[in-house]
Structure formats: structure tokens, C-alpha cells
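Input sequence (230 aa), recorded before submission:
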Amino acid sequence: MKTIGLIGGMSWESSAVYYELMNKKVKELLGGFHSAKCILNSVDFAEIESLQHKNDWNSLNQTMIASAKQLENAGADLVILCTNTMHLCSDEIIKNTSIPFLHIATATSKEIVSHKLQKVALLGTKFTMEKDFYKNILSDHKIDYLIPDKKDRAVIHDIIYKELVLGDLKNISREKIIEIIKNLQSKGAQGVILGCTELPLLIKSTDVDIPIFDTAKIHAEKAIEMALKN
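Predicted structure, C-alpha cell format:
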């Protein structure tokens, strides 16, 4: 089994979910006493959040490069980012490290293709919904996508940053997001990408009647499959 390097802490709640999901996948595939071989480099999310909202992506790139290099130097055989938004730094991570990097949007797109869906809704932070790093990979896999309107994007962004990353799960927020998903479904969305690793803490498959794509679960499980591949 290869050793997976995880860049986490964005937020720590979702990083903890990654660890659990990875070990459950190893148990499913190998059984017995097997568990995931991994190294976690957890950053201080307060520093990351501040730089995000200052739009200082140069500093964020440098932080993510340093984190990935630390994992490589510690013996990781591949690296993953336990967050969607910070995949805006993925190109720089790939350029500055020599171990494989598993992109969350690539893993998710392959899962959507396996379900034979042509159009999905994309939810996440404003960065994820409005910038191209996710959309380009979806397009590369011939997947059409919808994002909420500006008002609803602001609602989702605020729920993520003011509630979910703090571990605050509110029923009223769940209902708001379900309403947004239903609106996108009425516009042709056949499934919905929970493109923030905290969103699955709030939204479950039983909440809507179209498939949800839990990016944290997909990413964690694909990383294990990658680690076990000869």
C-alpha cells in the first residue's frame, strides 16, 4: 500500500471525515486489521480563510506548495487536498512536486460519467462555483453543469464559511440548500455535486431525489484505490 499525503485543516471537520472514509475503504477492500497508510499535514484554516477573502492566491499557492513538499519529504507517495476550493492551487502543487496528485474534480467527474449523467448542478464556495478550475475538468469529461444564481451562491457561501467550517449544522440552512438544489433540478440538473467537503455534513442523499456526488467521499475512496494499485 502506498502512503497518501493529505493536506488538511480546511476545515478540520472535513479532514476528519477523510481519515474515516479512507480507513473504511481499506477495510472494505482488504479486510482484517488493515488501515490506511497516510500522513496528514494540517494547516491553520484561519490563515487560509483570510488570504482567500483578500484574493491573495499567490500566498495561498506558496502555502500549498510548502505543505505538499513537506508531505513528499516525509515519504508520501501521492498527495491529495482535503478541500475543493484550494484546488485553485493544484497546478502549482503539481509543478513543484514529483509525486502524483489526485484532483478532486477529476475523481468526481469520472464518478459522474459512470452514472451516465450529462448535466449536474455544482454547489460550493463562491470560488468553486464562479472560477473555472472545476468547470474546465467537468467540460473535459463532456459534463454540462449549472450553478445557482448570484443570490443563491451568496447564501451557500455564507452557510459554508459562517456555519459549516465551524461545525454548526442548522436545519434552516439544510432547507435553504435543498430548495436551491430543487430549483436547479427544475432547470435540468440530473445530479448535484457537493463541491465543498463540508456540504455532505449537512446534505444527505435522502434529502433530494437526484443523485448527490459527495466529493469528499469520492476523493478519499479514489485515493485509496490509487494507493492500492500496483
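Checked by second reader. The CA atoms of residues 2 and 227 lie 5 Å apart.
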